[in-house]
Design a protein that fits this description.
By secondary structure, this protein is mainly alpha-helical. 44% of the residues lie in helices and 7% in strands. The chain contains 5 helices and 3 strands. It has a 3-stranded mixed beta sheet with strand order 2-1-3, with no helix packed on it.
Length: 117
């Protein structure tokens, strides 16, 4: 029987199990994040100048304000004669087109922006 004035003992076995679990979770998370970044390090928001007539949905999602649904709408209304066609065909709102104008084109290959290597 335990007396009420005794200090409870720490169960070190449980502390070690929890600590090991935390270390494994942190290790997995760091490894997962670095692996994901290695797959396509250039595909970050604003990192590509895109030909909207040829870019993939994944590439289109690098544009600020463009997610999966908007990327699919851009593809749906191809081909475009001009960047303004994105707004005219209602593929993107005017504010998104204007914000991304420097990252959009209708001819040529996709390119990394000047700040990307």
């Amino acid at each position: 029987m335990r007396r009420d004035d005794e200090v409870p003992q720490i169960k070190w076995k449980y502390v070690l199990i929890i600590l090991t679990g935390v270390i494994l979770l942190i290790t997995f998370d760091v490894q997962h994040c670095s692996t994901t970044a290695e797959k396509d390090p250039h595909l970050t928001k604003g990192s590509l100048v895109l030909n909207i007539n040829e870019a993939t949905a994944e590439e289109l999602q690098t544009l600020p304000g463009v997610g999966p649904a908007r990327a699919e709408r851009i593809i749906q209304y191809r081909p475009y004669q001009s960047v303004q066609g994105l707004f005219e065909n209602r593929a993107l709102p005017k504010t998104v087109v204007d914000a991304n104008r420097s990252l959009l084109k209708t001819t040529g290959k996709n390119e990394r922006t000047a700040g990307q290597h």
